[in-house]
Every structure is written in C-alpha cells, then in structure tokens.
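Researcher: Next entry in the queue.
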Amino acid sequence: MNGSTKGQPTHLKRQAVVYLRQSDPKQVRENRESAINQRALTERLPVR
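Model: Structure for this entry, 48 residues:
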C-alpha cells in the first residue's frame, strides 16, 4: 500500500466494527502499557 491510498475520503464513509473485550484483573496488572496505548487510540476517534 502506498501513501496515496491512506486516509482517503472514501475511507471515512465506510462503517467500522468495534470489538470490545473486558480484561480480567490479572491481565490489567500485567499489561499496563497496552492499556495506556489503547486509551490513547480512543482519543483519536471521531465522536459521532
């Protein structure tokens, strides 16, 4: 994929599927960096 195909207006017209899964307490303790990265991604999502 080259740079010209990324972020085109046609991509914004498409629906997205969001999959959420709750972590158990052990996963939360052991994967703190992953949680931080995931929260950072939610800040980039457009609100509708």
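Model: The helical segments are 9-13, 25-30, 32-44.
Researcher: Noted, moving on.
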